[in-house]
Amino acid sequence: MEKPTSSMEDDSNIDLEDRDPNRLNRHIQVFWEEVIGEPEGVRSPECAWRLSRHCFRLSKGCCYVLLTVLIAPLLALCLGLTFACLAFEHVWCIVPCLRVWRITCSSFRNFWTVLVQSVVLPFTEALGYFFHNVRVFSQKPPDAQERKDDIHIV
Question: What is the pTM of this model?
């Protein structure tokens, strides 16, 4: 049997431009214009605005690069181990146990279905025929003003 190839795991076809093709991090807004905005009425001097924007971009870029170079490989190793353990757990433990449970419970389900259809269903249908002409009316007596509604069954 031929091994299926996954374009997601193949390093030779990695897209270095679009690094979030599934849009996992759309909620993260990190551009200056998405984080800082001065409304009308409060304005900093233009030189302070430009310097602040430049400091923001430079510090964000340098800090991100430093963190990704130092911490990202270790974190990627931990995440790889975590997802490998998770995949192992699902493939070798959870799915087979669920399959055993489903096979074991199928005979009980068949027994329960037969019991319900042969005993409970006729009984509830008979009760339905017995009570199908019952009508319930709710009205307030003319002399009582603060009493709850009386229920009359006819």
Answer: 0.54
Q: What is the rounded distance in angstroms from the CA atom of residue 137 to the CA atom of residue 37?
A: 64
At 112-151, the pLDDT tens digits run 999 999 999 999 999 998 888 888 777 766 665 555 556 6
CA–CA separation, 97 vs 88, rounded Å?
A: 13
- Residues 6 or more apart from 7 whose CB is under 8 A from it? 13
The residues near 14 (Cβ < 8 Å, ≥ 6 apart) are none
DSSP 8-state code for residue 93: I
Residue 23 Ramachandran class (φ > 0 left, ψ -120 to 50 alpha, else beta) = left
Domain ranges of the chain: 27-70
Neighbouring C-beta atoms of residue 41, cutoff 10 Å:
5
Nearest CA to 57 among 26, 27, 36?
36
Q: How wide is the angle at C-alpha 11 spanned by C-alphas 30 and 64, nearest 5°? A: 25
What pLDDT, in 10s, does the model give residues 59-114? 999 999 999 999 999 999 999 999 999 999 999 999 999 999 999 999 899 999 99
**Strand ranges, E, within the chain:** 136-139, 150-153
